[in-house]
Enhancer of rudimentary homolog
Amino acid sequence: MQSNRHTIILMQTSQHRATRTFMDYDSISQAMDGICGLYERKLKELNPAIRNITYDISDLYNFIDGLADLSALVYDHSIQAYLPYDRQWIKHRALQHLKKLAH
């Protein structure tokens, strides 16, 4: 049951505690989609005149590194608990996710 592991993304966009938020998804893949979507929305806000915005993985990594905090909690069925993962893990999974979409 690797594919449908409930995933919670914990995020803080700036140093202000009020920017803490979380998003939950039915799978790791959907969570990575969500993080890419956040970045794409930010790009559209910054470049409203550009219709088709493209970016590469280093741009996404810079966005992820620019967040004050980012981590994931992924449900592990074998121990029936959530396991924490850090920013590096999220970057690695985002790269895998984008590679899959590119094929």
Q: What stands out?
A: Strands lie at 7-12, 20-25, 69-76, 81-85. The mean pLDDT is 93.
